[in-house]
Amino acid sequence: MAVSLEPRRNGVVEFLYWLWEGVDRTIFTAIKFSFPARFVSPFGFLGMLTFIVFIILGISGALLMFYYQPILDRAWDSVQFINDEVPFGFHIRNIHYHGSNAMVLLAVLHMYYQYFSGRYKIRNEVLWMTGVILGVVTILEAFTGYDVIFSERAELAISIAASLTTSIPIAGPVIRDAALGSGFSDFVLRFYAQHVFLLPIVMLGLMAVHFPRFLVFDVPMVMAIGGAILITGGVFPIDLGFKFEPTVPPGVTVPEWYLTGIYAFMRTQYDKFVTGLLWPLIFIISFVLIPFIDRYKKFSWRERPIITAFGITSLAQIMVTTYWGFYISPDISIPLVERLVIDPVFFYSVMILLVPMSFGFTYMMIKLANEAERKSKLAKSTGPKKVATLNLSEKWINWLLVALLAFQVFLNIAAYNAAITGMNNISLFFIGLILMVFAGFFHIYRYGMSEQKNAPPPPPAPVSDEKPKLSEPEESFQLEGSGESAKLPEGETAAEKSEEKPIAPEVSTPKTQADLGVGTDNNPNLGTGDLNKP
């Protein structure tokens, strides 16, 4: 009777096989999903996490579209209705807002990780260029997202965008009319169309070119980033802001954190095209051309000092200008316009001094670090072997404890503020904790499975100290110089064999006597003391 080893397929399994065979002919299977069996550095998953957050934004944004109204006098009211009346609307909006910030942050971190690790040198110039452009489009997507609310903050951002597009030579007015329409009456609908349709299509096209064939999908990291977004939404609920009223003077506000750097340049009241468009455009083009400028043969950031110094200098510029864009003079006696203006002489003097100092200091430190590493390797090869340890003094340990305590106080204050506002999104906090715990358990399970595969070898068997026993003469005897036992011929006993051919014949041992002049025939009464007599 023949037995079939093929698995039995019921209706569901047969359908899944049919579906997979159909999808196997599409472009979907051109992307290979890899599930790592062990923990890998999270920096390698930044691109994948950016894509996951993009999916989260698409789902949450689609849910918000059911109730949002892209009309000038109803936009803010519809968002307020989502917050207060729609079941779970406040939660979905918090997920969408913090997810947009997370996507921008992950895209920037992913770009700088690829930059410092030199991944673009592995014939990945196209991936690098599309990645930089994708980062810019991601910022534009987030920018149009918080503008469609049409709050006071959104009105400031829209006014800046209108002035920037108008300052573009020749094509500026055409771009402004296409993007904003004929003023506030059209911009909400046009920004809404860009946010939910045009820019996502551009992003999907860039992702299709940017993502490699092998996409590593790590479940614990996906759970961790999802939990982080939910926890952030639970502890830091997003504020709706004030509705923009043309008859009411606007309050003090600043754009989102990823735009405050450009906002700081524009607050110097210098030419808008130069500060708001030309400087960012030069920055973006310089990053796009990095693969063609970098001629170093090695990938390590320490072996590429000029490129590394340029990257660190750009990070320093971004952090300084971002902080400057948030800073507003607290003196309320000064008019609002004067509080927002930044002294251009002081600002650009700092920028001019900061760039060469940051670049030179970074380049010098990299060179010193390489020289110190070379000397340490030389000393290690010639000197005694030492194990490098990281020892913190009691002072630094105390400062570390103070920093951790301050962070805990900050989290408690944030949780208290969330509680006094009604704690409407406490479920986000708990779900985020569940996802984080699940990610931790999943990683521990994966780590245990990988360690089980690398089990240590069994201990060696103990060696006995007993001497080998000699074979019985009745059975066999051992031939000298051979490892085989020779059996006696049939009919002969061991005694007869030993008589005919003795194994060890006796050898006579000669006896010698010392020549002391005393023979065996001499007098035995002669003592040894008589030998000394003359």
Outline of this structure?
The protein has 534 residues and is an all-alpha fold. The protein has helices at residues 11-23, 46-64, 75-84, 89-117, 125-147, 152-167, 172-180, 184-210, 219-235, 260-266, 272-288, 290-293, 305-326, 336-340, 344-382, 394-420, 426-453, 494-500; strands at residues 32-34, 214-216, 477-478, 485-486.
Topology:
Elements: H1 11-23, E1 32-34, H2 46-64, H3 75-84, H4 89-117, H5 125-147, H6 152-167, H7 172-180, H8 184-210, E2 214-216, H9 219-235, H10 260-266, H11 272-288, H12 290-293, H13 305-326, H14 336-340, H15 344-382, H16 394-420, H17 426-453, E3 477-478, E4 485-486, H18 494-500
Parallel strand pairs: 1-2
Antiparallel strand pairs: 3-4
End-to-end gap? 117 Å
Q: Looking across the biggest beta sheet, what order are the strands in?
A: 1-2
| Strand coverage percent | under 5%
Tell me the number of strands: 4
Structural class, by secondary structure, is: mainly alpha
Q: How do the helices and strands follow one another from N- to C-terminus?
A: HEHHHHHHHEHHHHHHHHHEEH
Number of helices: 18
Q: Are there runs of 5+ residues with pLDDT below 50, and where?
A: 1-5, 474-489, 493-498, 511-520, 526-534
Q: How does the major sheet shape up?
A: 2 strands, parallel
Helix content: 55-70%
Shape: globular
Task: Round the Cα radius of gyration to an integer and report it.
Answer: 42 Å
Overall mean pLDDT: 77
Report on this structure.
With 534 residues, the protein is mostly helical. The chain has 18 helices and 4 strands. It has a two-stranded parallel sheet. α4 runs antiparallel to α5 and α6 packs antiparallel against α7. It is globular, with a radius of gyration of 42 Å. The N and C termini lie far apart (117 Å). The N terminus and C terminus are likely disordered.
